[in-house]
Amino acid sequence: MPAILTIRDLRKTYAGGFEALKGVSLEIERGEILALLGPNGAGKTTLISTVCGITTATSGHVTVDGHDIVTDFRAARALIGLVPQEVALEPFEKVRNTVRFSRGLFGKPRDDARVEEVLRRLSLWDKRDAQIKELSGGMKRRVMIAKAMVHEPRILFLDEPTAGVDVELRKDMWEIVAEMKAAGVTIILTTHYIEEAEAIADRVGVIDRGELLLVEEKDTLMKRMGRKQLIVELTAPIEAIPEALARHRLTLAPDGRHLVYTYDTHAERTGITALMNDVAAAGLVLCDVQTRQSSLEEIFVDLVGRKAS
Ligand SMILES: Nc1ncnc2c1ncn2[C@@H]1O[C@H](COP(=O)(O)OP(=O)(O)OP(=O)(O)O)[C@@H](O)[C@H]1O
């Protein structure tokens, strides 16, 4: 089946001449969750805004389920739900009307049952007749999500959905994301919480300074880029690493009881056997051994840092 979203050589130069997207190409499959990671100013919001038709691309092409976002804007836009970073709501409007109106904007017929379902799902039903200005900040965020979901989009964009929200909304948000994915909706989110991307994404894209550095299956990425650490626990603390172990470039934890060895899982030789032999020959006695895979965060920092240097 063709990709639901195809982005080809997308470029965006803002009026002042700043190049925010430098030729981004990306294909997104139906029903996947893609997390876009990148430091501040990397171009994540510009990318999402361009695909959603809020910002006009300088050049390049985007199709949503085969509909070009410029020449076939209405059809493309109707398939998209967007939860932007900033809350933008009409303060005197009532919650239910705001959400109902949003559905109408995408050419969908009025459906009060759908509006009720969405409001209930977001714990907003009790507030359905409240004016927006009477809501708390978290409730306003919930209205933004309701507005993005009510027209039954096939692709949902979440631009830093959990920045500054409380634990409850965060939990609700991820439950909704899981439910929508189960219903076949494609989800693209930007986040600064790398552990979140690690927990829910199928694929991860890393963007920096307007360029997509990579897009990969999360598990493959973590295996390919990841290093592992072997942590050797000694029965008795030592003051310093014995000379006989110098070649292994170990670090000794401050408690003197844990030796940490970092290795590349894909190297032809990890060096573990030699290390263990030398540890035994040095007269050290082990009581435990553990390994730890490097996190997505370490990979991310490594990638972005390497490019900057
Ligand atoms: N309207 C604009 N005019 C000029 N430059 C802009 C405009 N909007 C964004 N930029 C610049 O484009 C770059 C990318 O911004 P963008 O908001 O896409 O980044 P981001 O990855 O979403 O960042 P953050 O994580 O901070 O939200 C930044 O350098 C920003 O200053």
TrEMBL record:
> What CDD domains does the record point to?
ABC_DR_subfamily_A (cd03230)
Q: Which residues form the ABC transporter domain?
A: 5-234
Name of protein: ABC-2 type transport system ATP-binding protein
The highest taxon in the source lineage is Bacteria
Decide whether keyword Lipoprotein is in the record: no
Task: Kindly give the SMART domains that the UniProt entry links to this protein.
Answer: AAA
User: InterPro entries, per this entry?
Assistant: AAA+_ATPase (IPR003593), ABC_transporter-like_ATP-bd (IPR003439), ABC_transporter-like_CS (IPR017871), ABC_transporter_ATP-binding (IPR050763), P-loop_NTPase (IPR027417)
Q: Which Gene3D superfamilies match?
A: P-loop containing nucleotide triphosphate hydrolases (3.40.50.300)
* Nucleotide-binding among keywords: yes
Alphabetically ordered keywords of this record:
ATP-binding, Nucleotide-binding, Transport
